[in-house]
Design goal:
Helix content: 25-40%
CATH class: Alpha Beta
Shape: elongated
Structural class: alpha+beta
Radius of gyration: 19 Å
Oligomer: single chain
Strand content: 15-25%
CATH topology: Maf protein
Low-confidence stretches: 1-7, 214-220
Largest sheet: 7 strands, mixed
Order of helices and strands: EHEHEEHEEHEHHEE
Length: about 220
């Protein structure tokens, strides 16, 4: 049985440049390498929201998996949905303002799709997690103040639940980490099921999950 050197490729890759996803995964005790996907998100037409976010996440993971077939790769994408309309990242202050007006006083859904792939092992898992988020009724002054911060412009739906935007959120039903950008519970479940991480005491990473890269080989 041939063994692949661990020095030749990362064991687990996060195919995202999102600092929020990186923080959530690190806080969960997972060791990984960040290699952002170069997939062109605009090449995917809007379809049903769940299918759309799943396709995007899978395409991001697939883009990196082609370059690192021996590695496990996580790809993810998050969207905000209201009235079956997808709200992605606002391109302007005016767009952010309109998004927040639409969300004000109502409940919307945050969908995160994530994909786990390892081409060498022919393993492929895709899942979508949905969370309901209820906004308070916002005044025009509150909306105007928020759009003049730097926060809305790299966030789906034009807000950050973990930042200044927390003041808008009346209630969250479901996974909070999903709203931030990665459903940690579900991602860890899949990583454990695929044998990527484990909960064995005394692992190499004493303060985190045990990475199952010891004795890693392409035949497993």
């Amino acid at each position: 049985m041939s063994t692949v050197s661990l020095q030749s490729f990362p064991f687990l890759i996060l195919a995202s440049q999102s600092p929020r996803r990186r923080y959530l995964l690190k806080q969960a005790g997972v060791e990984f390498t960040v290699i952002p996907s170069s997939f062109d998100e605009s090449s995917i037409p809007h379809t049903h929201p769940e299918n759309f976010v799943q396709t995007l996440a899978d395409a991001k993971a697939g883009n990196i998996s082609e370059q690192y077939p021996q590695s496990w790769v996580i790809g993810a994408d998050t969207i905000v949905v209201i009235d079956d309309t997808i709200l992605e990242k606002p391109a302007s202050m005016a767009e952010a303002r309109e998004m927040l007006k639409t969300l004000s006083g109502r409940t919307h859904q945050v969908l995160t799709g994530f994909s786990l792939r390892c081409n060498a092992r022919k393993r492929h898992r895709v899942q979508v997690v949905s969370t309901n988020v209820c906004f308070k009724d916002m005044t025009p002054d509150e909306i105007e103040w928020y759009v003049h911060t730097s926060e809305p412009f790299d966030k789906a739906g034009a807000y950050a639940a973990q930042g200044l935007g927390a003041f808008m959120i009346r209630r969250i039903d479901g996974s909070y980490s999903n709203v931030v950008g990665l459903p940690v519970c579900e991602v860890i479940e899949v990583l454990v099921q695929e044998g990527v991480v484990g909960f064995r005491p005394g692992g190499r990473n004493a303060e985190g999950l045990q990475m199952m890269s010891d004795g890693y080989d392409e035949q497993r």
